[in-house]
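> example.struct
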């Protein structure tokens, strides 16, 4: 994994990724009873690793590369929710309840300096500055913008590999390890790659909306009935308002559920690159290509610059990559030089400087490669090793 430039996603990185909201608007949790908790735990106890995520004993997420995903849509229900939330914030500010609630929040933060909300806010700001996260929450929204298309943007993990093992039953011991490879996964929707996901349901916030709306409606209707001259139109208006809000909450959940199912389907067909042995073969191919590129760049620098010590060769290789490809990296010069010396096309003098043989002589020393044999065979030529 390290040679293929994959890194274990730390808990801080996962928190940063999930601190935002993109397409997926439902809380996704893992059914931990269906996952083995022994294999990975024993492995990391035998091979300690820094900054492991909280779920390291159940599944591990490897990541590589950062990209950008953009989605353009009307987002009508999301905009309505934002308008309602901003209206309630305005009411709290007018009634001065906001100051009371903010004082209580500050007291909670003083009691617990590691409060999750404060940490999430700090991570969220860092994420926005670095990865250009564009959300509806930070856009000016009005009733006129409900019927206008809006583009939101979310950074993505260019490649993700998830490793886990299903839990074993008493009658059947599960020994298989599952390895799944995904591409272009939005950070805020990273839950779609988690194994053994539970079916999402109504959130506690939705249940509070349901119960609060029902109680308000019942109280309003009961108070209207106690009045001698009860106006049926008033009762009807109250009931229709309450029922409309309940219906809006329910249909919002249904819309989010459909989006979740579409995301899962799309991730399986569009975003999943491979699984099992296919992923392992892909990683092996990445390692081979990485090592071949290191060898070629090191040999090219020695061929162009002449003799060089280890530090000079490392610096010149990194400068070449930065100038030609616009990328900064920590070039593994030791591994490249070791392979070149093993091939016999690079030598080291007594003062620690490396030099290479001529290009023609290097080809003669290396001989015919497997790729050349395959190419000649495809062209119908006769080849002899």
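> example.seq
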């Amino acid at each position: 994994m390290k040679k293929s430039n994959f890194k274990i996603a730390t808990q801080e990185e996962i928190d940063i990724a999930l601190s935002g909201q993109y397409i997926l608007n439902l809380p996704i949790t893992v059914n931990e009873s269906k996952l083995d908790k022994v294999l990975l735990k024993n492995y990391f106890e035998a091979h300690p690793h820094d900054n492991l995520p909280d779920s390291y004993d159940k599944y591990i997420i490897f990541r590589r590369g950062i990209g950008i995903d953009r989605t353009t849509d009307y987002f009508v229900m999301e905009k309505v929710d934002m308008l309602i939330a901003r209206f309630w914030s305005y009411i709290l500010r007018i009634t001065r309840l906001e100051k009371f609630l903010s004082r209580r929040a500050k007291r909670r933060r003083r009691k617990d300096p590691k409060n999750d909300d404060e940490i999430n806010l700090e991570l969220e700001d860092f994420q926005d500055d670095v990865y250009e996260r564009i959300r509806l929450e930070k856009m000016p929204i009005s009733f006129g913008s409900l019927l206008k298309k809006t583009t939101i943007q979310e950074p993505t993990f260019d490649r993700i590999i998830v490793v886990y093992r299903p839990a074993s039953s008493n009658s059947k011991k599960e020994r298989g390890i599952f390895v799944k490879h995904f591409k272009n996964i939005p950070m805020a929707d990273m839950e779609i790659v988690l194994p053994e996901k539970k079916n999402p349901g109504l959130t506690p916030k939705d249940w509070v909306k349901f119960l609060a709306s029902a109680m308000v409606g019942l109280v309003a209707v009961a108070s209207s009935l106690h009045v001698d001259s009860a106006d049926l139109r008033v009762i009807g208006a109250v009931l229709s308002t309450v029922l409309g809000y309940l219906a809006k909450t329910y249909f919002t959940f249904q819309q989010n559920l459909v989006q979740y199912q579409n995301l899962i389907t799309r991730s399986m067909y569009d975003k999943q690159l491979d699984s099992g042995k296919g992923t392992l073969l892909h990683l092996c191919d990445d390692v081979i290509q990485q090592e071949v590129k290191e060898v070629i760049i090191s040999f090219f620098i020695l061929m162009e610059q002449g003799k060089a010590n280890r530090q000079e060769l490392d610096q010149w290789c990194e400068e070449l990559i930065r100038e030609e490809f616009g990328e900064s990296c920590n070039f593994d010069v030791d591994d490249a030089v070791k392979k070149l010396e093993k091939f016999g096309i690079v030598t080291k003098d007594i003062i620690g400087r490396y030099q290479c043989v001529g290009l023609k002589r290097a080809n003669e020393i290396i001989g015919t490669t497997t790729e050349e044999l395959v190419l000649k065979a495809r062209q119908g030529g006769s080849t002899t090793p």
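> remarks
The first strand starts at residue 7 and ends at 8.
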